[in-house]
Amino acid sequence: MYKVIFIDIDGTLRNSKRELTKRTISAIKKVTQKGILVVLCSGRPQKFTEDVSRECGASQYVITSNGANIYDYKQSKNLYISSMDKKACIELYNIAIKAGVRLVMNVGPIKVVSKLRKMDGSETELKTDIETFVNENNIEQCLIEDTDFEKVKPLKENIEKVENVEIKNQHKSLIDPKAPREGTIYYDIANIEVNKGNAIKKLCEILDISLKDAIAIGDDYNDISMFKVAGYNVVMGNANEEVKKYANEITLTNEEDGVAVFLEKLIK
Fold first, then answer.
1. Where residue 201 sits, what CATH number does that domain have?
2. Which of 102, 117, 141, 189 has the most CB atoms within 10 Å of its CB?
3. Are residues 22 and 114 in the same domain?
4. Listed residues 170, 191, 212: the one ending a domain
5. How far apart are CA 165 and CA 192, in angstroms?
6. What is the pLDDT of residues 208-261, one digit of tens each?
């Protein structure tokens, strides 16, 4: 019997409208009632991931910022954190400002941004100079982003020159020329050793669970590190062919409740 299931959020757990369906929530509830932990594992910041975890009834553990943070929200406790190199954060800020795009910094439960885009309280605008902020805070992940593909695309070369960090995930259009250039075009950037796979290894060690008893479900390139260490891999039908190579099983798409379909079958 599997003991833990690690599930990505965007493109996996939620549909294209960023919704959790009733079927998905119900399936997660049934799985947890069987004593199986469900852990959301996302490139998103801590507070966002916690909110989705609570909404779907998953466990108290969340893996955020592409594996830079493991958080237990019932105990309000960081189980693991990998803070970014401070010099690298300053360099990334300068790259973003020079290009006229946004820098987003995941700092614990919040997002601190070089320029506000949302006025709903989910973002905090940087009010000090970048050097002061970086020296006073632990940054887990940076995003360089804009809705203009042509502004973001050329920045990859400069980002890759920044020492001690690397790109962990990026908008599909930056990899696949056939992918639509819609929404926010982004690069996720964190410390070199950070990835979802390393984070699920650390959490399994903490919980004394064998990786053989772990299932990973995802759809994108940043989920491959999970697939390399988990005992069983489920890839979404909406994933590209490169990601599907790591699948033990391919479920339906996120528009077709692919996660719920797999979970319902698992507990039968």
1. 3.40.50.1000
2. 141
3. no
4. 191
5. 5
6. 999 999 999 999 999 999 999 999 999 999 999 999 999 999 999 999 999 999
Last residue of a domain, one of 191, 214, 243: 191
What's the rounded Cα separation, in Å, for the pair 87 and 234? 38
pLDDT in tens, 98-152: 999 999 999 989 899 999 987 777 899 999 999 999 999 999 999 999 999 999 9
Mention every residue, 6+ apart, whose C-beta is less than 8 A from residue 95: 144, 155, 158, 159, 162
For 203, the domain range is 4-81+194-266
Average per-residue pLDDT in the chain? 96
Residue 144 has which token pair? 């360089």
Assess whether 255 and 127 both reside in one domain: no
User: What distance in Å separates the CA atoms of residue 143 and residue 92, rounded to the nearest whole number?
Assistant: 9
Token duo for residue 196: 């979802």
Q: What's the Cα-to-Cα distance from 239 to each of 20, 177, 184, rounded to whole Å? A: 18, 15, 19
**223 in the same domain as 96:** no
Task: Please name the residue that has the structure tokens 């772990």.
Answer: 214
Look at the chain and count its residues: 268
What is the Rg, in whole angstroms, of the alpha carbon atoms belonging to the chain?
A: 18
Q: What is the pLDDT at residue 122?
A: 81
180 and 98 in one domain?
A: yes
Q: How many CB atoms lie within 10 A of CB 34?
A: 11
The predicted pLDDT at position 196 comes to: 98
